[in-house]
Design brief:
alpha+beta, Dna Ligase, domain 1, Nucleotidyltransferase, domain 5, 5-stranded mixed β-sheet, 34% helix, SHS2_FtsA, ATPase_NBD
Amino acid sequence: MGEPEVYVSLDIGSTSVKCIIGEVSDEAVHIIGVGNAKSTGIRKGSIVDIDATVQSIKRAVDQAERMIGMSIHKVILGIPAAHVMLQDTKGVVAVVKNDENREITSDDVNRVLDAAQMMSLSPDREHINLVPRYYTVDSVSEIKDPRGMLGIRLEVDATMITTSKTVLHNVLRCVEKAGLDIQEIYLQPLASGTFALTKDERNRGTTLIDIGGETTTIAVFKDDQLLHASVIPVGGENITKDLSLVLRTSTEQAEKIKLEYGHAYFNEASDNEVFDVPVIGADAKEQFSQRYISEIISMRLEELFELILDEFYRQNLSGLPGGVVLTGGVAKLEGIAQLARDCLQTRVRIAAPQYIGVRDPEYTSAVNLIRYAHADNQFYNKYEGDFNQPSNDMMLGTAQPSHEQEQMEYQQPAPRDDYEETNHQPKEKFSDKVKKIFKGILD
């Protein structure tokens, strides 16, 4: 049994910042720390107040640290799909060896990936991920992993993911000011969809819809590749504001009512389930039924699903055989799957992590960032060891875990099929790239 690998993911959303600590040992993931803080300083997925965002990050990180007594220094950062572009790219290199044994190694793979990244970008764009679709060795294509094969010419067809340089630098600055280093950066819908969807769904063609607080992310997978990612500036906060106006109550109360009594499917909502609502500016409370607020919720969600259908038609993505998978905080609303089936006219299911303590669709992105980072590190063998130091009162691996920590351990299913454990040389560390970006900003 090898030493456990520790990963920390950071999901900076418009309504909440989530920090998840995961420990991976023998392909089993144990969620050992969770932080969830209200997000301030972010609107529609973009940072509008750096200092407020920094404080939100610190609160989420502090919650996760206090849960297990571990100091967090490096994080896996998720970047939202807003301002993201997907571009096809290709890299070609010669397999040069001193002897006649032209075996392709990790060094050759890294060189061809570097060649694929040589695509010129506009000054306002920044590269964040390069996702290989397949490799070609001489005349043989559709290869997932060419290492160990013999050949003279190595090619890669890949997808380059870029985002707005301004948006990325603002996020990096917030993470830096929060006292954290960045281990890796991944596009959130890429990491989320890789594990929220089954391999069959990723191959057949499926849309992952992540409904957050202020935005909804649409990610389309087909042939095991991310084909499209976009953001609609509508989310659960719109429902909360509608309830607040109609019920004449505070936003805080409206959010509580939405979560406790909300039902997305009007036909199945109950007239008998009645609850009291405090009215702003009055001492008295008014009573409403679940069916009454269900009409408000369903109308807003129907509007959202119409916008999603419009996006499908614009991108020629309608009629995918894999259907739709819903996730995100709003996906836990009762009846939302039935409403989505009626509106989108396709199969719909809800995706949520299956780990004690984070069995909620709102944690899908944060948890899958850890799983994606582990799979990526296994493929490139670039894990840097324990990058999070235990605090003075608890040495990792020697202290007795708390009852809460023991309860949060859960056996993970088998890892993604097309990743294999190897002992090849590591790929270039992303932390070095981040340092270069900051150096360019300061210069």
